[in-house]
Amino acid sequence: MPEAPNILSDSADCIDGIVVESNNKVLKFIEDVTAHADEVQRRVLSEILSRSANVEYLQRYGLNGCTDRETFKKVIPVVTYEDLKPDIERIANGDTSPILCSQPISEFLTSSGTSAGERKLMPTIEEELGRRSLLYSLLMPVMSQFLPGLDKGKGMYFLFVKSEAKTPGGLVARPVLTSYYRSSHFKNRPNDPYTNYTSPKETILCLDSYQSMYSQLLCGLFQNEDVVRVGAVFASGFIRAIQFLEKHWSLLCKDIRTGTIDSKITDPSAREAVMKILKPNPKLADFVEAECSKGSWKGIITRLWPETKYIDVIVTGTMSQYIPALDYYSNALPLVCTMYASSECYFGINLNPLCSPSEVSYTLIPNMAYFEFLPVTRKDELTGSISEPTALNDKEKQQLVDLVDVNLGQDYELVVTTYAGLYRYRVGDILRVSGFKNKAPQFNFICRKNVVLSIDSDKTDEVELQNAVKNAANQLLQYEASLVEYTSYADTSAIPGHYVLFWELSVKDSTLIAPSVFEDCCFTVEESLNSVYRQGRVCDKSIGPLEIRVVENGTFDMLMDFALSQGSSINQYKTPRCVKYAPIIELLNSRVISSYFSPKCPRWTAGHKQWCTQN
Ligand code: AMP
């Protein structure tokens, strides 16, 4: 994650504040807010509620200007995105009255979580940028406690912006990181040893993903000896960069040798910014060429960037599937997960960044938002599914606990109340309490509720998958065939990863079904999946074509036998709609009769279906 300079406010009510000069001040800030977590939380809630006393949403529930926790919890419901959708649509359509927040909504952040196949729209306000910068500014002082000298070199981070859209009411809608990189907080950040990147901002802000990646890699290779840390936001993004290098290293070497930039890079600002850095360097070109043309890419990161101390990428949650590839490319450099954040709110940081990926825990920073926690129980260890109360009954509501009251080892769903106008909003993440920093709990990220498949930032839930499979399987009926059972898995053994569906069929005469029928089924599934999936397929190319593997009859009975042999109860057994456990995947793969891939990309356009787009 990109760090911000060491700028820190002294309290939740003043983000643009005091400039703190030393790492020690940041560490003291962390000590203070975690030691007084409950007081900070009480103040944050009271601040949010007093500022929002006039907003329609709170008045609707009769909060009547109260700012105390007890009344708030009694009268304000715990909600999901679907509950807020009518209010959010009003804002998107141009209603500027204080519906959710008393401050003007500055833009919408388009979350990778979806609703009806489209990205969720999170309203945000200008001052949230300061809050995000505050969290970023904590990262390097924490990191520097464990690895000195990071201020002496550069970070090679592959950071990207995505296209924007405008709502009918004229507000910009874009992903949170695009919003941050385009903001003055990032673009005009003061010189700071911790925000010294190899990528000029113009290359990050270039919308064309090929040109952006090419320019960033060129600058990273050119400054290879200065690089002390490398990274991207998610592990999948970093691996995409290495894969890009595998494809384009000879062109990149040519540019390093001659000190020019390839003519495919046409973005004037990116070209100009790269040309300010690049000089002819035949020696470096020879070196990069020699390393890249060796048969194996094992350890390529440390070979090309020899001073690299760690890889800064999120490898928690579904991203853990990329750990083996990162270990291979880096000869097992430390993988560092620094922070936990979302479009709704930035949550917390990892205070022990050199721990192993399986032990990563995030300390929620108490002045980011008001946090509550809904206890959840694990239902099925084999499939990893979580029981999910849809609307909360009174008893469940009473189970919500405050930040400082969570229990060690217990799983909770995160519920936030933010400065930007979300009140008791269920984020959809399941967290497990792993310890405490002073009074503030630390959490392992367990999973995103309901998500069964994910390759990059896509999050496909069971219901979406079910509908998509149903749409596709309907096409088989005309061939007197039907789908008996199915399951899925995210295959990341090759990059980009892709969704795999295992289908068991009942077929009268299999010779009647041409391969193109199954290919059409693959395509129909893709067309039926949400916009984040389709964007990954079409625009970012971060997801490969979906595959259907037809398995022999009786395979799903074998799967059930296997689950029972592992202790599942026969009464409760349900076919898992997604499998992750290697022996199960092996079993399924051993029964594959034929496999088919989607022949083309599904449709995708920027913005919600009904909006005009702008770039
Ligand atoms: P978005 O709303 O698209 O920004 O996505 C935010 C979601 O990404 C969070 O709610 C989490 O589900 C996931 N996420 C963010 N940070 C992490 C992390 N450090 N580890 C695992 N998942 C994360």
Automatic annotation (TrEMBL):
Pfam families listed in its UniProt record: GH3, GH3_C, GH3_M
Domain GH3 C-terminal stretches: 464-580
Residue ranges occupied by any GH3 middle domain in the UniProt entry: 362-448
Keywords for this protein: Ligase
GO cellular component: cytoplasm
InterPro entries: GH3 (IPR004993), GH3_C (IPR055378), GH3_M (IPR055377)
Keyword Ligase: yes
UniProt key word Lipid biosynthesis: no
Record GO terms (molecular function): indole-3-acetic acid amido synthetase activity
Protein family per UniProt: Belongs to the IAA-amido conjugating enzyme family.
PANTHER family: GH3 DOMAIN-CONTAINING PROTEIN (PTHR31901), INDOLE-3-ACETIC ACID-AMIDO SYNTHETASE GH3.6-LIKE (PTHR31901:SF63)
Protein name: Indole-3-acetic acid-amido synthetase GH3.6-like
Protein's organism: Gossypium australe
